[in-house]
Design goal:
single chain, 240 residues, mainly alpha, 70% helix, globular
Length: 240
């Protein structure tokens, strides 16, 4: 049952995840932490730090040994069994990092729906991983079984991680090609939540200085996004 649900969720995830985030983030009001602007700013900083940790982990995964089993025609698919880079420490490091980023967004938003979204995403990934494991076991047989024995499914093992990082060539261009959209999406969400939370019932109106800083930050991110995308489309960031 879990595997069947996983195949369906894998097929619709590109549409489902943004819809869930929009419903949770903007369908419910954020809450000012402790009804205090100062405390809320500290909570915002914590949320951003958590999301950055998740993004940093994604950078490591993509830059060291990116996996090619992102699906084909919206179906679970893999051309090779990738077990290097961060995949030597966690079988699903990208899913782990995504949950961490969602948790960071939830802390910034501080509303019940965003916090509830974290376990929802975890359950969705459990189902998707069940479908992927069924496929990988059938395709790669004993090689995948041995991989599962030595590498944890979720939380990464720390043993030998520094050796993995030092022995692998980090590909910054690949990180730019693959991650510029992800970075722009969640950072834009954080900035919008910082404005949106001032519309909660107990919150004061947002100050002009704070609003200007948020607007300037978003404009800088938007420019970086457009420049990176232009370079990618022109082939300046390496092959797709």
């Amino acid at each position: 049952m879990t595997s069947s649900a996983g195949h369906f969720l894998f097929k619709v995830r590109d549409a489902l995840f943004p819809v869930l985030l929009l419903l949770a983030g903007f369908g419910t009001r954020p809450q000012l932490a402790g009804e205090s602007v100062q405390l809320d700013h500290w909570m915002d900083a914590l949320g951003v730090a958590v999301a950055l940790a998740g993004q940093a982990w994604r950078f490591l995964v993509v830059g060291l040994d990116y996996i090619a089993r992102g699906g084909k025609n919206r179906q679970v698919w893999a051309n090779t069994l990738v077990d290097g880079g961060m995949f030597a420490h966690s079988r699903n490091p990208l899913y782990v990092s995504n949950v961490i980023i969602i948790l960071g967004l939830a802390i910034v938003h501080n509303g019940w729906a965003m916090y509830a979204l974290v376990p929802v995403f975890m359950l969705v990934y459990v189902a998707i991983v069940s479908a992927e494991e069924e496929y990988l076991s059938a395709r790669f047989g004993d090689a995948y079984a041995q991989y599962c024995k030595r590498v944890p499914r979720w939380l990464p093992s720390s043993g030998g991680m520094l050796t993995t990082i030092r022995s692998s060539q980090f590909d910054w261009l690949k990180v730019l090609r693959k991650e510029y959209g992800t970075v722009f999406a969640w950072t834009s969400g954080v900035l919008v939540f910082m404005v949106w939370e001032h519309y909660s019932p107990s919150a004061p109106a947002i100050g002009s200085t704070e609003l200007n800083v948020i607007a300037a930050t978003w404009i800088g991110l938007a420019v970086a996004y457009v420049v990176t995308r232009t370079l990618k489309l022109r082939g300046r960031l390496g092959p797709p």
